Amino acid sequence: MNEKGSNSTKERLLSSGALLICEKGFSGVSVREICSHADTSMNMIHHYFGCKDGLLKAISESYGENVFALPLKFLSKEPKSKEDFLCRIELVFETTLEACIENRLILMITIREQQSPKALLEYMAGFKAFIDIGIDKGFARKELDSAMITGFILDRIVNQVQFSPWINDEFGTDIFNDQSYLKRWSQSNIDVFINGIVN
Amino acid sequence: MNEKGSNSTKERLLSSGALLICEKGFSGVSVREICSHADTSMNMIHHYFGCKDGLLKAISESYGENVFALPLKFLSKEPKSKEDFLCRIELVFETTLEACIENRLILMITIREQQSPKALLEYMAGFKAFIDIGIDKGFARKELDSAMITGFILDRIVNQVQFSPWINDEFGTDIFNDQSYLKRWSQSNIDVFINGIVN
Q: Average of pLDDT values for B27-40?
């Protein structure tokens, strides 16, 4: 098996695994089913991931990398001014939202199976450090408790994606295709995070 | 069967249903299992709830009522002053958090099965109306897009409860028993919702 073939077997296992785990839950799907769906032999899951748990971990790590690489980039550079600080928060919001929508299948798995991809923890630490720098430089309010608010933006975004079928059923809004809704939603929520609800 | 007996059969079906659906997922549990766990005959689920779907709906409606009755009370009275307006937001936050923790089992089911209890929709409408009154009376910023932020507090709370096993594993914080953490977390998050992160 050449390098390309071996890569594509691994990729197929990751995507079949994601699809089936999302549909049936982690405990509801067998290694046999995943391998059969990926059109490969049972050995291959052991070869690439060790076991079913290893496959789940690999799926959630790939979610972490796909979703948080870009936001982390915006968080890890020191903001030069208040404008730069606020602009980066907008960029973090928008790129996280986009990536969560793009990777919604593995996002759902990571939520349901309560996985801890490394990049998520890095994102949370990066978010805290970014807010702390903002406080230090006088861009953010000194009363903020940075450790308690690292999930503020993420909760909002993750739930918008997690509950998208419900939002669609209940309000007729298809967040995956309605760009003008998404823009309005992002702007309103960034606005509250930055400025709060009172003057 | 007397009134008391009939009530308790119904209660037992609700709590056995909640427990088993939470453990195994809605599609992973049978009517037979639920009835056997509730120590009652198969007829009873049909008598009280029509079918398994009816039981799920009843469980999620009870979540809605248990969680949103009190917050809705605070939202539905017109705020008399800015202080009253802000105080009510704090009360909504704290009572919702408390009720979500208290009802965490049925909260998890409602999330996973993406149910729409009536009281949740009433809460969201009440939240929007409350913010609109706040804007109208000059207590809240006129730039707020009230329809886009009805889930702001709820997302934060629901995820704190939904991810409590993860939070415990990852950070050693037991949100169900650590009152001082919960207080600090509530205050910081209410503060950001009200005042934002910048001056």
A: 94
| Residue B2, SS3 per DSSP | coil
Query: Residue A57 corresponds to which tokens in the numbers above?
Result: 């971990």
Whether residue A79 is predicted with pLDDT greater than 60 in this model: the reply is yes
Q: Which residue out of B112, B132, B192 would a mutagenesis test of the A interface target, given it has the greatest number of A Cβ atoms within 10 Å?
A: B192
Rounded alpha-carbon distances, angstroms, from residue B17 to A169, B12, B24, B58:
25, 8, 10, 10
Give the number of other CB atoms < 10 A from CB of residue B161. 20
Query: Model pTM greater than 0.95?
Result: no
Q: Given pLDDT bands bounded at 50, 70 and 90, which one contains residue A3?
A: very low
DSSP secondary structure letter of residue A52: H
Sorted by sequence, the CB contacts under 8 Å of residue A189 that are 6+ apart come out as: A93, A153, A156, B148, B149, B152
Are B64 and B82 within 8 A, CB to CB?
Answer: no
Q: How far is CA B149 from CA A138, A160, A196, B7, B73, in A?
A: 27, 11, 11, 39, 19
Q: Provide the shortest C-alpha distance from residue B99 to chain A (in Å).
A: 19
Q: What's the pLDDT score for residue B114?
A: 87
pLDDT tens per residue, range A122-146? 999 999 999 999 999 999 999 999 9
Which among A143, A152, A162 is the nearest to B156, CB-wise?
A: A152
pLDDT single digits (tens) B149-170: 999 999 999 999 999 999 999 9
- For the four alpha carbons of B185, B190, B196 and B199, in that order, the dihedral sign comes to negative
Question: Residue A115: CB partners within 8 Å, gap ≥ 6?
Answer: A56, A57, A60, A63, A109
Residues in B 153-172 with any Cβ partner in A closer than 8 A:
155-156, 158-159, 162-163, 165-166, 169-170
Q: Are B95 and B71 in contact (CB under 8 A)?
A: yes
ipTM of the complex: 0.90
Cross-chain Cβ contact A148/B189 below 8 Å: yes
CB pairs under 8 A between A and B: 122
pLDDT at B10 over 60: yes
- Alpha carbon of B198: minimum distance to chain A alpha carbons (Å): 4
